[in-house]
Amino acid sequence: LAHDAMIQLYYHHFHRSHPILLPRRSLASSLCQHIPSYITHIMRYIGSHYYPQPGFSDTFQAPAYTALSAPNDGFKVQGLLLLAIIEHSYGHEETARKLLKDAIQLACHLDMINPSFARSHSRGSPILEESWRRTYWELVVVEGLVSAFGGGPILPSYKWINDEMQLPCDEKAYNFEQLKPPKPSATLSTLPEPDLHHISPFTYRILATQELRAVLQVTQCLDPDTELQTETLDARLVTSLMRLPSSLPEHDTATVDEMVFQTLMITYLSLIYLHHPHSTIRLASYHSATTLASSSSTSSCTRLRTLQSLPLSAHIPHHDSPASNTHSHKLLRAADLLSNLATLPSTVLSRTPFFTCALSIAAVVHVAALAGGPPSSLAIKYEGETGAGKEQSLKARIELGVGALQVLGRAWPLARRVRGEMVDMYR
């Protein structure tokens, strides 16, 4: 099984982004016999998207979706979660949300949100035990991302998120089956000071998602005066970036840990969502123009949620005020940093499919700044550059995003669709 070509593609490209299934090494162990056939079908289906032949994945689709009629257990939760990610990668937002909701509700029904579930269903294997915990935490992360990209929370409350669940171990320890003997481990409620204790990259990714949820709650708040909350969240987000471990992109020129990559991606997204409502850079003109120009709506991930919940007038600050210019500066800076992730080592093709929406949001910000951003706000961001230099800098960012979407589009239909929208918008 470990030598199956499509499964090899799954582990080479996808597993590092969403590492919930058993490590590849486990496929050669006795644990393999416990894996339902539909899980291997899903692995092949996902892997087939990276095969360089259009339509090749169609052959693997039907067997993968036999997971929908499978018995209710932890493996089905994994299957529903992975299928939800794939449906989102096709731009099938409602189907993705339904599958993700089903996965979360099944996890709650099975009591998977209880820390004891992983141990009692581990069959004596610490690897399988860790896989169940990772499945739970992946639900938390993916639900946060899907909620941010459109439609709001999957479930009406976050009561299913258990702060007492043991946090994931390091990726190397998991993938190389080098888990240490059981001992009291950190949870969200007992998380040690990150400056003094080692925290796994997966845990940083979870923390980033929790901050994203906090940002979305503030930006959807009906209270028009959220400046103090915004400043507090901004400080927390910047602090979280400072606390990331030294194995960051600037220190490692060979590879970038996917969990660290996603932590950066989610944090930059949070900064964009946080500062956009208070900035002088308006995205509404682009969206109204595309609505008039096209009979089909744009992809949800190219629309910032802050434009969807409140009247536009509630978000517009006093133009050219020091505060609004500062928010514009921070908004553009976050969009720059987000698009810069496409330049890091490791192929863009192997990044999480959610990078599609992240790139598109950064590009929308850059296009809005290029098309209608007030000169004063751009002057703060690109201080010292000429007018032509500012324009060229923004165009370079947009072209970087479009190029990265083209690479992601080799595997995922949503990336191809969004790239087309970006090209039309850029024109």
Automatic annotation (TrEMBL):
Q: Source species, please?
A: Aspergillus niger (strain ATCC 1015 / CBS 113.46 / FGSC A1144 / LSHB Ac4 / NCTC 3858a / NRRL 328 / USDA 3528.7)
Keyword flag Transcription regulation: yes
Name it: Xylanolytic transcriptional activator regulatory domain-containing protein
One record GO biological process: DNA-templated transcription
Q: Which UniProt keywords apply?
A: Nucleus, Transcription, Transcription regulation
Traced from the root, the source organism's taxonomic lineage reads: Eukaryota, Fungi, Dikarya, Ascomycota, Pezizomycotina
Q: Which residue numbers delimit the Xylanolytic transcriptional activator regulatory domain?
A: 76-177
Xref: Pfam families: Fungal_trans (PF04082)
Q: From the UniProt record, list the coiled-coil ranges.
A: none
Q: Which GO terms describe its molecular function?
A: DNA binding; zinc ion binding
